[in-house]
Amino acid sequence: MSEIVENIENEDDLFKRVPLNETESEHIAAEPYSYWKSVFRVFIRKPSAIISTTLLILMILGIIIIPLFCPEGWTDHLSPVVFNMKNIAPNSEHWWGTDTLGRDLFFLCWQGLGKSMYLAIISSLIVLVIGTFIGLVWGYFKKLDPLFIEIYNLIVNIPSLLIYMLLSSVFISAFPTMPAEVRLIIALTITGWIGLARFIRNQVLIIENREYNIASKTLGTPPLRIMFKNFLPFLLAIIITEFSLEIPGMISSEVSMSYFGVGLPSGTVSIGAVLDRGRAQFMTYPWQLLAPSGILALVIFIFYLLGLAFSDALDPKKHR
What span, in angstroms and rounded, lies between the C-alpha atoms of 242 and 303? Predict the structure, then answer.
C-alpha cells in the first residue's frame, strides 16, 4: 500500500476533473410521463376500444352522408311521392321497407338517428356540467349535505321515466309554443343531474383528506379553486366515462317518451318517433319496428362498449 501511495505525485492523480455542462445537467434521460398518452396507449390496445371507435366513426359518417343520397320526398310524409309507397316490405329499392306514411325507413332511420344523437349529446352535456358542479359543491360543503340528500331521496324514489313524462306534459300545457326539442331537453335534464352529482360527491369525500388538499385548505386557498384545481382533474377520467354512458341513456329516454306520446311529435324524424309509429304496426308490418330498433341497439352497444373501454383505460392502475 505504501509503494502505491509513493508513486502518486499529487492529489490530481487521484481524481479527474469533469467539465461542467449546464445543458447536459438539466437533461432528463427518461421519457417524460404523460397520463393522457398512457391512457391512449392502453385504449388502442383493447379490441373493444378499436371495435367501438370504428363503429362510432362509421355511424357518424352514416348520419352525415346517407341522408344526402335520399331521393327527394322519400322521408317527407307531406310529399306526393310517398302516396303509393305505404307499407312496402324490404326489397332492392327500399332496403328496410317503408312506413305507414310511405317514407323509406333506411333513410328515415339514419336521418332520425342524427336528430336523436344531437338531442342526446346536448342533454348529456347539460347533465354533465350541472351534475359535476353540484357534486363538487355537495362534497366540499358538508353543511349542504342534508339538503341535497333530501332532494336526492325525493327524486330517486320516483321512476325517472315518470318524471320525464310528467315534466314534458306540464311543458306542453304551460308552453304550447315552445319547440318540442327544447321541451324534451329541459324535461331530460331538469332532474337527470342528481345521480351524477351524488356520484361526484362520494368521490370528493374519498379524496378530500389527501395531503395536497389539506395543504391547500391550510394555505387559505379559495373553495372554488380547490374544487376545480384539486378535485376536478382527479375526477376527469370518471366524468368522461360517465358521459359516454349517458348518451345512450338519453336516447333510450327519448324513445320511451315518444312511445308514450310525450316526446317529439310523430311527424318529427327521430328514432323515438319512428319507433312509436312502428310499434302500432308491428304485428302487420314488423319491419317498421325492427329497423329503428336495430339502429337503437347498435347505438347502445357502441357507447356501452366505448364506456367500458374508457373506464379501463382511464384506470391509473393500468399505467406505470
Answer: 11
* pLDDT of 83 over the 70 cut: no
Residue 15 lies in a domain: no
Domain span holding position 160: 112-318
Question: Which residues have a Cβ under 8 Å from the Cβ of 282 and sit 6 or more positions away?
Answer: 288, 289
- Is pLDDT larger for residue 290 or for residue 169? 290
Mean pLDDT of 291-314: 85
Q: Is residue 80 part of a domain?
A: no
How far apart are alpha carbons 155 and 182 in whole angstroms? 22
- Residue 27 in any domain: the answer is no
The per-residue pLDDT for 55 is 92
Q: How confident is residue 133, by pLDDT bands cut at 50, 70 and 90? A: very high
DSSP code string of 119-145: HHHHHHHHHHHHHHHHHHHHHH-GGGH
Q: Is the pLDDT of residue 1 over 70?
A: no
Closest CA to 293 of 275, 311, 316: 275
Q: What pLDDT score does 57 carry?
A: 93
**CATH value at residue 155:** 1.10.3720.10
Higher-scoring residue by pLDDT: 317, 157? 157
Would 226 be classed as within a structural domain?
yes
Q: What is the DSSP letter of 89?
A: P
pTM for the structure as a whole: 0.78
> In the structure grid, which three cell numbers stand for residue 84, read together?
303509393
- Alpha-carbon gap, residue 241 to 153, rounded angstroms: 25
Strands (E), 197-266: none
Contact 52/306 with Cβ under 8 angstroms? yes
Overall number of domains in the chain = 1
Buried b (16+ CB within 10 A) or exposed e, 13-49: eeeeeeeeeeeeeeeeeeeeeeeeebbeebbeebeeb
- Cβ-in-10-Å burial (0-12, 13-18, 19+) of 87 comes to middle
pLDDT at 281: 81
Cross-strand bridge partners of residue 104:
98
